[in-house]
Amino acid sequence: MAVPKRRISKTRGRKRRSHNSIKPIQLPYCPQCGTAAPSHTVCPNCGQYQGRTMVGGEE
Q1: Interval 13-36: pLDDT, tens
Q2: Could you give the angle at the alpha carbon of 34 between the alpha carbons of 36 and 48, nearest 5°?
Q3: Which among 2, 5, 12, 45 has most CB atoms closer than 10 A?
Q4: Where exactly are the structural domains of the chain?
Q5: Is 48 helix (H, G, I), strand (E, B) or coil?
Q6: 42 by DSSP, 3-state: which?
Q7: Collapsed DSSP state (helix, strand, coil) of residue 54
Q8: For the range 28-31, what are the long-range contacts, defined as Cβ-Cβ under 8 Å and sequence gap of 24 or more?
Q9: Which residues contact 15 (CB under 8 A, 6 or more apart)?
Q10: Distance CA 23, CA 18 (A)
């Protein structure tokens, strides 16, 4: 069985886990109306997706 030969210090363990923090979601902006919307989905504000109207917007 693999057993660590020495105790890992708190600093070394925390350095390794520094990339596990939660980052805010990067939302791209809709080219038609400019609101932030998740990528690869229909814009909730104007109903556009890849330059085409998919859903009737609020306009």
Answers
A1: 999 999 999 989 899 999 888 899
A2: 85
A3: 45
A4: 25-54
A5: strand
A6: coil
A7: coil
A8: none
A9: none
A10: 12
Distance CA 38, CA 22 (A): 18
Q: Residue 57 pLDDT > 70, yes or no?
A: no
The residue among 51, 26, 23, 24 whose CA lies nearest residue 38 is 26
Q: Is the pLDDT of residue 3 over 90?
A: yes
Which pLDDT does position 18 carry in this prediction? 94
Q: With contact defined as beta carbons under 8 Å apart, do 46 and 30 qualify? A: yes
Q: Is the pLDDT of residue 37 over 50?
A: yes
The C-alpha atoms of residue 29 and residue 57 are separated, in whole angstroms, by 16
pLDDT number for residue 44: 87
